[in-house]
Amino acid sequence: MFDFPKLDNCNIFPLPEGTNLEFKYSFTSSMSEKIIATICGILNSGGGYLVIGVEDGTRRIVGIKTDKSMDNFLLMLDSIYHHNHIKKKDGTPININTIKPAIVQAANDKELLVVTITAEENERYTVKDGSVWYRLAASNFKQTAMPTLYSEKEMDTIIAQRLATQATILHQQFDIEKRVINQKFQSEREKIKMKFTSLESDFERVISHAKQTEHNFNELREMIYSDILLQKQQTEKELKNKNKWYSFICSCF
Question: Is residue 251 part of a domain?
């Protein structure tokens, strides 16, 4: 059983119908028996999803309306538990969390009713009259009817279609996971890029401050050097004057 895809930005359902996935455009009470057979078939195929609000064939998401038909659909699901419309092969009731409906949001504020169907490992299920239903490709089949309905060649064709459908689902799931990973990688890369830009800006500020400090130091050094040179010149001048005076005094004696 695969994980249900995210539909937040989807107008077309990303996966095709198959052994573990069934679409219904809407629901009417006349569909109850077929829906129960579909759920039984999905249970006997390892579990999956029944999605109400998707156009069969085009996979266009049309959404559901919260009206009496949806109330009847939910009551029909409840009756599966209350009246044992589906039970385990030994006749015991199914677990309470086997069939769980939920509203899922898609694009343009459209909502789908998604029934998650969870099978127990190595368990088999029957409908109320004892019939065992299975899924092949996107269709329901009774176990007892399969040998008389199809030849070996026809069964090979059905199995090939089923395998092709599963391969398509796996490829599309891979594409979805790939997009999610790419989006996550892109987000992380943008975060690193922003952090690097911030560090680069901090580095430029440090370099600018260092250059300004070096400029101020050079100015101070030039000023000190000029002051020392001036003091030296004044000292030499004073010393020269003193020597002249001393020579004059000595010549007088």
Answer: no
